[in-house]
Design a protein that fits this description.
The complex is a heterodimer of chains A (151) and B (294).
Chain A (H helix, E strand, L loop, with lengths): L11 E7 L4 H7 L10 E9 L2 E9 L5 H5 L9 E6 L2 E7 L5 E3 L20 E7 L2 E5 L5 E2 L9
Antiparallel strand pairs in A: 1-3, 1-4, 2-3, 4-5, 6-7, 7-8, 8-9
Chain B lengths: L2 H18 L11 E6 L5 H12 L3 E5 L13 H9 L4 E6 L4 H6 L6 E6 L5 H14 L6 E5 L6 H10 L5 E5 L8 H9 L3 E5 L11 E4 L10 H10 L4 H4 L7 E3 L20 H19 L5
Parallel strand pairs in B: 1-2, 1-3, 3-4, 5-6, 5-8, 6-7, 8-9
Classes of the chains: A mainly beta (151), B alpha/beta (294).
C-alpha cells in the first residue's frame, strides 16, 4: 500500500498538483498565514506520476471556487478535492479568474498602485494559459514569475 | 477611445480653430477648470489655459506639487475629492502611471489626463493626430517615429491611436531606446504595420511624416555613448532633402539637438504648428466634456 506523507483528512479541502515549491504561495493567495486558525498540512516536492509536486490540505474548511481559482495564477494545473467524511465529494481543476484584485502587485515601480494612495491593485487576466495579467491602472503586463509579485 | 470618438474630437477642433487663433468666444463662459499639475509642463498647461480663456472660461490650480497640499502629505485621492467640489472639470498631470484613471474614481466631475508618468498623454496624441489630419494625411499614413521610443510617453499613446488608422509605422531608434515589446505586440495585434530599424536613412524616402523625439542624456550611463547616439538621430536640412517634398516633420517639443534649427525654415517643419494645434484640440475636449454641443 502506498505510504501517505500526510494523513487523510476527515473534511476540508485538498489542493493537489501544485508546482514544486509553490505551496507557501498558494497559502499566501488563500490568505492563510501565521495567525490563521485552520489546521493546514503542506507537503513539498513529493514525487507524483508526472514528477515533483506540492500538496496542501486544509482541514474543516471548504474553500469557495472563486477563492480557489486565484491559485491558477501560479499553479495552473492544480486540482481541488473537497472532502467530507474522508470521501472526495467534489473534484475539479482550477481555472484562472477573469479579474484579480488585491492578490498581486504591479511590476511597474512607477505605477500609481505602488504608492501610499488608498488603492487595491487590480488586474485583467488577459490570457489564461499561460497566464498574462494586465494592470488596470498602468496597463503594464505581467507575463512570467507571477509568484514574485504576490502581495 | 474609439476611432469615431477621435474623429468627432478632430472635427470639433477644426470648427473651433478660429477661436484658437484669437477670436474671443464664450462657449465655456462660467466654467471653471482645476489644473492640477504635479509635474512641470509648459505647452500642455499653457495651451489648456489658452483654450479655456479664449472661450470665456477660467482656471484655478497649481503648477508644481510644492505649491499644493501634496507637500503636506495629502493623498491624490483626497485632493481630487476636495477639488471636485470647486471646479467643473479637473485637468491632471501626475508623475505616476495610471494616476488619472485612479483619480477619476474619486472625482465627481470630468477628469482629463494631461499626462501620467511614462503612461499616456491623450490630448497630446489628439493634437498629433490633428496635425497629421491638417498637414498631411491620417488614414493610412506612413510615419517614422524617431529617437527615444522607450521612455517617450507621447509615442506610446500615438502608436496605439495610429493603429486605428491603418498606419504604416516605422520605429527608428537605437537598440537601447527601442519601443517596449509589449507596446509593439499590442499594436501588431490591433492590425498596425510595424517596421523597426536603427537608421533614419532607411525610411526617410518612404514616409509622409517624421515624428522626432528628444533623447535624454540621463538615459545613458556613458556620456560618449550619448553623444554618438544623439549625433546619429539628428534631423538636418541635408537629410531632409532625401524625403518627399510633402513629408512633414513633427516633434512634441521641447527639442534640444535632434532637429537642426536650420530645418525650422523649411516648409516641411510643422512642429510649431503642431504645438499651436494643442489649443483647438483642447478646446474641443473641454467643450465636449462640458456638453456645449449637446
Amino acid at each position: 500500500m502506498k505510504e501517505l506523507k500526510v494523513k487523510r483528512i476527515e473534511s476540508g479541502t485538498v489542493i493537489d498538483h501544485i508546482p514544486p515549491g509553490q505551496a507557501p504561495n498558494v497559502l499566501k493567495i488563500l490568505g492563510i498565514r501565521g495567525g490563521s486558525k485552520e489546521v493546514v498540512s503542506m507537503v513539498m516536492n513529493v514525487v507524483g506520476k508526472t514528477g515533483k509536486k506540492d500538496i496542501v490540505k486544509i482541514e474543516n474548511r471548504e474553500l469557495a471556487e472563486d477563492e480557489l481559482d486565484q491559485i491558477a495564477l501560479i499553479a495552473p494545473n492544480a486540482t481541488i478535492n473537497i472532502i467530507r467524511d474522508y470521501e472526495v465529494v467534489e473534484k475539479y481543476k482550477v481555472t484562472p479568474p477573469d479579474f484579480v484584485e488585491g492578490v498581486v502587485k504591479c511590476s511597474n515601480p512607477n505605477c500609481i498602485s505602488n504608492t501610499n494612495e488608498p488603492i487595491v491593485p487590480k488586474f485583467l487576466v488577459e490570457r489564461k494559459k499561460p497566464v498574462v495579467l494586465r494592470c488596470m491602472y498602468c496597463e503594464r503586463k505581467i507575463t512570467e514569475d507571477i509568484a514574485k509579485y504576490l502581495m | 477611445m474609439s476611432k469615431e470618438e477621435i474623429d468627432y474630437i478632430l472635427k470639433v477642433a477644426e470648427k473651433l480653430e478660429p477661436y484658437a487663433r484669437g477670436v474671443q468666444g464664450d462657449l465655456l463662459s462660467g466654467k471653471l477648470f482645476a489644473m492640477l499639475f504635479y509635474e512641470p509642463s509648459t505647452r500642455t498647461r499653457l495651451s489648456f489655459e489658452t483654450a479655456t480663456k479664449r472661450l470665456g472660461g477660467d482656471v484655478i490650480g497649481f503648477s508644481s506639487p510644492e505649491s499644493s497640499s501634496f507637500s503636506k502629505g495629502e493623498s491624490l485621492a483626497d485632493t481630487i475629492r476636495v477639488v471636485s467640489g470647486y471646479a467643473d472639470a479637473i485637468i491632471l498631470r501626475h508623475p505616476k502611471e495610471g494616476a488619472a484613471l485612479f483619480a477619476s474614481q474619486y472625482s465627481t466631475v470630468p477628469l482629463i489626463n494631461a499626462g501620467d508618468g511614462a503612461g499616456h498623454h491623450p490630448t497630446q496624441t489628439l493634437l498629433d493626430l490633428y496635425t497629421l489630419h491638417k498637414e498631411s494625411t491620417l488614414e493610412g499614413v506612413k510615419i517614422a517615429l524617431v529617437g527615444d521610443l522607450k521612455y517617450g510617453r507621447t509615442v506610446h499613446s500615438l502608436v496605439y491611436a495610429l493603429s486605428l488608422y491603418n498606419a504604416k509605422i516605422f520605429l527608428v531608434s537605437p537598440p537601447e531606446l527601442s519601443m517596449p515589446s509589449h507596446v509593439v505586440s499590442d499594436i501588431l495585434e490591433r492590425g498596425a504595420t510595424v517596421h523597426e530599424t536603427t537608421s533614419i536613412e532607411d525610411v526617410i524616402e518612404e514616409v509622409d511624416a517624421i515624428y522626432m523625439t528628444r533623447i535624454q542624456k540621463e538615459r545613458f550611463p556613458d556620456p560618449s555613448e550619448y553623444q554618438r547616439v544623439v549625433g546619429s538621430y539628428r534631423l538636418t536640412q541635408e537629410l531632409l532633402k532625401m524625403a518627399k517634398p510633402t513629408t512633414i516633420v513633427m516633434h512634441p517639443l521641447p527639442r534640444v539637438d535632434e532637429i537642426d534649427p536650420a530645418v525650422d525654415n523649411m516648409p516641411n517643419a510643422k512642429y510649431f504648428q503642431q504645438s499651436f494645434y494643442g489649443v483647438p484640440v483642447r478646446m474641443a475636449v473641454l467643450c465636449i466634456l462640458m456638453g456645449v454641443f449637446d
